[in-house]
Specification:
This protein folds into 2 domains: 146 residues, 3-Layer(aba) Sandwich (Rossmann fold), CATH 3.40.50.1000; 60 residues. The chain contains 10 helices and 8 strands. The strands form 2 sheets. Strands 5-4-1-6-7-8 form a 6-stranded parallel beta sheet. A two-stranded antiparallel ribbon has the order 2-3. It is an alpha/beta fold and 215 residues long.
Length: 215
């Protein structure tokens, strides 16, 4: 097999997130801060580390801590939905002795909670990294340094690693770090946009990953 390690983005890669989270932000912004958020405004900030997204999207209307609390208070009304194939894809990769990890722009506590709730094999991942754990964020290649360090110590080289994500920031970070990238069109970007920025492989859903990696 070409790859010995596969790192995944989370939102709109393994779970349906964008539609639900945009609706949640619109609700919270209007109800608690009398802000009317448009899709255009949210898209401009979507994909940023959660703390930065909150500061920019809510225009510093409150402390980040307080906004987190308000968002959390309605979280159960806007829970992310798993792409039905996703847990099985990761389990299949693991069963083929491929290292699997998650590098996400969401905060670690939310990330782990969703992974547990949606039946992902959390205890088998070599890394689960939230944005609040690192100083570098996509599209900066440094976001991958902790994962690459772990893999290097067990003899896995960069050309044996691929990152799978749904955004151009995902692509830029992966290529900047010297690892391969697979784009998924489950987010905001189309195949031609990925390919225009150098993506060699673009798939329409996470279930297609196995046919490519295990071929």
């Amino acid at each position: 097999m070409m790859y010995q390690a596969v790192i995944f983005d989370f939102d709109d890669t393994l779970v349906e997130s964008r539609v639900l989270k945009w609706a949640q932000h619109k609700y919270v912004a209007k109800k608690f801060y009398n802000l009317d958020l448009s899709d255009e405004e949210i898209r401009k900030h979507y994909g940023k580390p959660l703390n930065q997204l909150i500061a920019d999207l809510y225009q510093n209307s409150d402390t980040t801590e307080n906004i987190h609390k308000v968002i959390a208070s309605v979280r159960n009304d806007y829970l992310k939905k798993v792409y039905v194939e996703a847990p099985g894809v990761l389990k299949k990769l693991l069963s083929n002795n491929i290292k699997v990890g998650i590098v996400s722009a969401t905060n670690k506590n939310y990330l782990v909670d969703d992974l547990d709730r949606l039946d992902f094999p959390v205890n088998d991942f070599f890394i689960i990294q939230g944005s609040d754990e690192v100083s570098a964020h996509k599209p900066e290649p440094g976001v991958f340094f902790p994962a690459l360090d772990i893999l290097s110590k067990i003899g896995i080289k960069k050309d044996q690693i691929v990152y799978i994500g749904d955004s151009l920031d995902d692509l830029k970070a992966a290529h900047g770090a010297g690892i391969d990238f697979i784009g998924l069109t489950t987010g905001l970007y189309k195949e031609e946009e990925f390919k225009a920025h150098g993506a060699k492989v673009v798939l329409s859903r996470v279930g297609e990953v196995l046919d490519f990696i295990l071929k």
